[in-house]
């Protein structure tokens, strides 16, 4: 009888064990990865993160073509992140384990993936303004690439203009290897600007990728703007809204009018050699042609227009327009303007018969209405 009872107890114990899944405890923890297993041609710009669900990471081993890859587990123990960006054309192996609150290990995560190999490389070659510059309130940002960009939208998504004060602005693609950015209105004096191009690993079209990121910083200086009145024959400079100097000037004669619109000071020279055939004026050797060195020259467009000293037109300054399109000032006024001008200062010409247009230089950002300018963005969408 005792044997029968004992047998019944053993059988009951075995049944209970079966019903309660006796054996190794099953962990509540699991590990997930930001990159799905067996992914191929992954952009190296993508982050690699491992996350513990309902537990903490206790073991992470990542290799790149067999070499260990450094990374860190955060203070919570829930997330591991790689220390540096993924490399091009590399196979990664991932092994990770987490433990739940009872110390039970998870099922190991084992996965692998391969990053893309670029067909070619494109990067930011330079920017204007350059790093550390202080510029005037009309200076746009110009970003130049060392190769033409095929997928403008993909690149533009990775470009950032960060400002110390809220500033509305837009990108505008001048060409496949240049994109500009300008504020809707003039910059606020003193604004700190950071230009970022996070192009590493980004496919810019046809497999051409960036292999480095770029960053540059510049500052907006004081608010100085000039107004040249063609009909009044005056040239007036304002700082912070206050008139600081009004000068007599001579502008372009009827055959060569100074173009009206917002120009931008782009160069400053103690003297510049100027000739009429470099900008489409009288040809060399023809009547009206000139070739001379003129002092105190501030370039305001890329079509040959300068604000500069010209003693030959002193008698006409303040009374008539006799130049080939430049703004002529006296020796004293020309020197003063050169010394007080900052690259990026706006020079607005009013009253002439011919407008400044996008065909007239490498900074034409202010020659088109804002509503048109924003359409030059690769990310523009009609309202």
From TrEMBL:
Keywords: Acyltransferase, Cell shape, Cell wall biogenesis/degradation, Peptidoglycan synthesis, Signal, Transferase
GO molecular function list: acyltransferase activity; peptidoglycan L,D-transpeptidase activity
Top-rank lineage group of the source organism: Bacteria
SUPFAM superfamilies: L,D-transpeptidase catalytic domain-like
Biological processes per GO annotation: cell wall organization; peptidoglycan-protein cross-linking; regulation of cell shape
Pathway in which the depicted protein is active: Cell wall biogenesis; peptidoglycan biosynthesis
Name of the protein in its database record: L,D-TPase catalytic domain-containing protein
Protein's organism: Saccharopolyspora terrae
Phylogenetic lineage: Bacteria, Bacillati, Actinomycetota, Actinomycetes, Pseudonocardiales
């Amino acid at each position: 009888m005792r044997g029968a009872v004992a047998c019944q107890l053993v059988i009951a114990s075995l049944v209970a064990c079966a019903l309660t899944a006796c054996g190794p405890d099953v962990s509540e923890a699991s590990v997930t990865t930001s990159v799905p297993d067996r992914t191929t041609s992954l952009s190296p710009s993508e982050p690699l993160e491992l996350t513990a669900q309902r537990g903490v990471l206790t073991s992470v081993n990542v290799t790149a073509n067999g070499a260990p890859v450094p990374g860190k587990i955060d203070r919570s123990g829930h997330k591991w992140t790689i220390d540096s960006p993924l490399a091009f054309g590399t196979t990664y192996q991932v092994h990770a384990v987490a433990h739940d609150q009872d110390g039970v290990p998870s099922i190991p995560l084992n996965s692998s993936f391969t990053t893309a190999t670029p067909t070619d490389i494109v990067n930011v070659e330079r920017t204007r303004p350059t790093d550390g510059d202080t510029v005037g309130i009309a200076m746009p940002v110009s970003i130049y690439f060392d190769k033409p960009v095929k997928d403008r939208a993909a690149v533009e998504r990775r470009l950032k203009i960060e400002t110390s004060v809220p500033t509305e602005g837009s990108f505008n693609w001048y060409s496949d290897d240049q994109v500009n950015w300008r504020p809707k209105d003039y910059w606020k004096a003193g604004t700190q600007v950071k230009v970022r191009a996070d192009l590493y690993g980004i496919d810019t079209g046809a497999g051409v990728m960036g292999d480095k990121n770029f960053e540059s910083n510049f500052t907006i200086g004081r608010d100085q703007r000039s107004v040249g009145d063609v009909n009044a024959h005056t040239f007036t400079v304002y700082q912070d809204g206050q008139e600081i100097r009004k000068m007599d000037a001579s502008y372009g004669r009827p055959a060569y009018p100074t173009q009206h619109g917002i120009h931008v000071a782009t160069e400053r020279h103690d003297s510049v050699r100027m000739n009429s055939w470099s900008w489409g004026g009288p040809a060399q050797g023809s009547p009206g042609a000139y070739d001379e060195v003129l002092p105190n020259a501030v370039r305001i467009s890329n079509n040959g227009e300068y604000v500069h000293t010209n003693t030959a037109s002193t008698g006409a300054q303040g009374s008539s327009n006799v130049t080939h399109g430049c703004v002529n000032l006296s020796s004293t006024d020309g020197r003063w303007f050169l010394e007080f001008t900052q690259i990026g200062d706006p020079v607005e010409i009013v009253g002439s018969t011919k407008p400044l247009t996008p065909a007239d230089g490498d900074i034409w950002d202010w020659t088109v209405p804002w509503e048109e300018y924003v359409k030059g963005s690769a990310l523009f969408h009609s309202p």
